[in-house]
Design goal:
The complex is a heterodimer.
Chain A (H helix, E strand, L loop, with lengths): L5 H32 L4 H6 L16 H9 L2 H32 L5 H10 L9 H10 L1 E4 L2 E4 L6 H4 L6 H12 L3 H9 L4 H9 L4 H16 L3 H6 L8 H4 L1 H4 L6 H21 L1 H10 L5
Chain B lengths: L1 H5 L2 H29 L18 H7 L1 E6 L23 H4 L12 E8 L2 E7 L2 H32 L6 H13 L2 H11 L6 H9 L16 H25 L4 H10 L3 H12 L1 H16 L3 H6 L11 H11 L3 H25 L5
Antiparallel strand pairs in B: 1-3, 2-3
Helix pairs in contact in B: 2-15, 5-9, 5-12, 6-9, 7-9, 9-12, 12-15, 14-15
The chains are: A mainly alpha, B mainly alpha.
């Protein structure tokens, strides 16, 4: 083989990085544009689109769009609702799904194989195909709450939370992880007289850190970004999540683009920051959905 | 010994119960209800009792007919023409509205048609908007699935190099995946805006003014392709990561061997990388197909199905019926059709990519 000269090598390296940077620009420019525009008055924002200024913090910069956005819509309420619904669902989901997976992997009970196959089969059902009948169910389901017995789940927190606690994929992720744990560990504890609940709590769950992170991240992204379901079941402003709250800005005759960009930045930056901090875990969790083949 | 230790019917049931019960109630039950409702006239709220209607909902959506219009002739048998010389035909509505001679055309409307000699052939549909949604959805999937899978593989190969700071690039390429599709849609709606929009300006700059500004989302020819491009931009990082995990399962010793044998880059890809990615490829195509069929937010935020129904899609139609018009049975019927399509296509994909021994 011909020897590679230093120059040639340097050039090849530079080309590789040039390609990488070019692709990176394609992925980053809309987000950069969003953040920068949120700081500019509408007129400047619209004018800046014909130059690189669109991506630079230049001109008349202020947080005015943010204050105006807060004046236009109860943003604090929307954010709080999204956080509440997402956090509650994630916590319950981790508990319910890990417990079910524990039972499928370590315990032997009648019907276990059959029920597990049915759960696996539900992976092929897209949520979008069950939302319409679920909407009818939600309008007629009973509930016992603070005011006693009532009918109807529409316009509640529970309708945004309970249907999404358990799903086939989350249980499956736990099952995969639990299968790789050493069985001897469990059997030894059984011989020593530990109950199944103790084994779940004291032995298996302390070892389940990585899969808990994976399941939490997937559920977090799904819940925080939900749009279609809350659009149909939540009309009341007081319990509306952030994605549906966008309607406040886009249903205007003249869309206040500066405020829209401020709102988009506000609801996106925390997620991006969270992602950049836990980058490895985020990417690993998406990659792990790849095992469901 | 082990089996006796793990045998525990009561505890096992108790532990699995919450998860199983929730899935049964909120996924499996509505799934079967969709089938049941599609055979009735169920509404979200109605004073009248729900009735069984058989497959009426399906024929209301899928009904098709081909009809040939013959030109109007005068008494001498000459074809009548209007002032511009165009052939005059009888009005279609004479046949589709309460015409006892053509019961199968009742209520249908023109979807598209073509000229055949002096005759005009018209394809009529019971629900023209649904038919457009069906075609648009298939078009969307047929473009997005292969393009997104292919680009994701290119990105994965790009990121799989041993270079300093490669993780920074991986993080950036993946970034749009964590951003909500609703946010992305609004952002791109602005990028696509007509006249002085960002995309128009970028294209103008790179082509030195050759590419004229367009109304990307307001033009029937570009609206759906614009939404496709944006969807690919948002989703490609997701599948890049799955390809990447597939790439990393390929043993480095295979690459070393290829290197020693003097294989070219293409040969290495063709005979080592690609065969090693076989299972990943099947999975990615199925996942993208399922995701692409379910598109909704992009349409709802950016175009509302317009212009002229050029971006109507199945889920948008299901929501329009089931939610906007409170027609649960109509929405359920579309949901069932969507599920059957997704299922059929996954099965076909699995069959075509099965291990051949």
């Amino acid at each position: 083989m011909a020897a590679v000269t230093g120059d040639n090598h340097g050039l090849r390296l530079a080309t590789r990085y040039a390609v990488l940077v070019l692709v990176a620009i394609i992925f980053i420019f809309p987000l950069l544009f969003m953040a920068m525009s949120s700081l500019k008055p509408d007129q400047q924002l619209l004018n800046d689109t014909n130059s690189l200024r669109a991506f630079l913090p230049v001109g008349d910069l202020s947080l005015q769009n943010y204050w105006d956005a807060f004046d236009r819509a109860p943003i604090g309420v929307f954010v709080l609702n999204s956080v509440l619904v997402t956090a509650t669902t994630v916590v319950f989901s981790l508990f319910v799904c890990s417990l079910a997976a524990f039972s499928f992997v370590f315990l032997n009970w009648k019907g276990r194989g059959l029920i597990f196959s049915i759960l696996l089969a539900t992976l092929i059902i897209p949520y979008e195909t069950i939302f319409i009948p679920l909407l009818l169910m939600a309008s007629q389901l009973p509930w016992i709450g603070a005011q006693g017995f009532e009918v109807g789940w529409l316009n509640t927190y529970r309708v945004q939370i309970i249907p999404f606690i358990a799903d086939g994929l989350t249980i499956f992720l736990f099952v995969q992880y639990f299968r790789d744990l050493p069985k001897e560990l469990i059997e030894a504890s059984r011989v020593e007289g530990a109950s199944w609940w103790q084994i779940y709590r004291k032995i298996v769950m302390p070892l389940a850190g990585p899969v808990l992170a994976t399941a939490a991240i997937l559920k977090f992204l799904f819940m925080y970004n939900q749009y279609l379901w809350p659009l149909m079941v939540v009309q009341e402003e007081a319990i509306r999540p952030v994605m549906v709250g966008l309607g406040y800005f886009t249903d205007q005759l003249n869309v206040p683009w500066g405020e829209v960009m401020a709102y988009l930045t506000l609801i996106t930056v925390p997620v991006l920051a969270f992602y950049l901090m836990l980058q490895r875990a985020f990417i690993a969790s998406i990659a792990s959905t790849g095992v469901k083949g | 010994m082990a089996s006796r230790l793990t045998q525990s019917n009561r505890t096992g049931w108790l532990m699995a119960l919450p998860g199983v019960a929730l899935i049964a109630t909120f996924i499996i039950l509505p799934f079967f209800l969709a089938f049941a409702f599609s055979l009735t006239n169920q509404r979200l709220a109605s004073p009248n009792p729900t009735e069984y209607v058989g497959f009426a909902n399906y024929s209301d959506l899928l009904g098709l007919a081909i009809f040939t219009l013959e030109p109007e002739r005068d008494d001498a048998g000459q074809v009548l023409r209007d002032e511009d010389g165009a052939i005059e035909y009888p009005r279609l509505r004479n046949f589709t509205r309460n015409n006892p001679d053509f019961p199968h055309l009742q209520g249908k409307r023109e979807w598209f048609g073509w000229q055949s000699g002096e005759d005009r052939v018209v394809v009529l549909a019971s629900d023209v908007v649904f038919m457009k949604a069906l075609v648009n959805t298939f078009f969307f999937v047929a473009v997005v699935a292969p393009v997104q899978a292919g680009l994701a593989l290119v990105l994965a190969l790009l990121i799989n190099q041993r270079l300093r700071a490669i993780n920074v690039f991986r993080a950036i390429y993946f970034m749009p995946v964590v951003v909500s599709i609703v946010v992305v849609s609004l952002l791109w709606q602005f990028i696509y805006s007509p006249g002085n929009g960002l995309l128009n300006n970028i294209l103008d700059w790179f082509s030195f003014g050759l590419i004229a500004p367009r109304d990307w989302l307001g033009d029937t020819g570009t609206a759906l392709p614009s939404i496709m491009a944006m969807s690919i931009w948002q989703g490609v990082g997701f599948h890049m990561v799955i390809w990447l995990s597939g790439l990393q399962t390929i043993s480095p010793t295979l690459y070393e061997a290829a290197h020693i044998e003097g294989a070219s880059k293409w040969q290495t890809f063709r005979f080592i990388t690609w065969p090693g990615l076989r299972n990943t490829a099947v999975l990615i195509i199925i996942v993208i197909t399922m995701q692409a069929f379910a598109l909704f937010a992009q349409i709802d935020v950016m175009t509302g199905g317009g212009p002229l129904d050029s971006t109507q899609v199945l889920v948008f139609q299901a929501v329009e019926r089931g939610y906007q018009r409170q027609d649960i049975s109509g929405g359920s019927t579309i949901s069932v059709l969507l599920f059957l399509i997704v299922l059929t296509i996954s099965l076909i994909q699995r069959y075509l990519t099965r291990e051949k021994h």
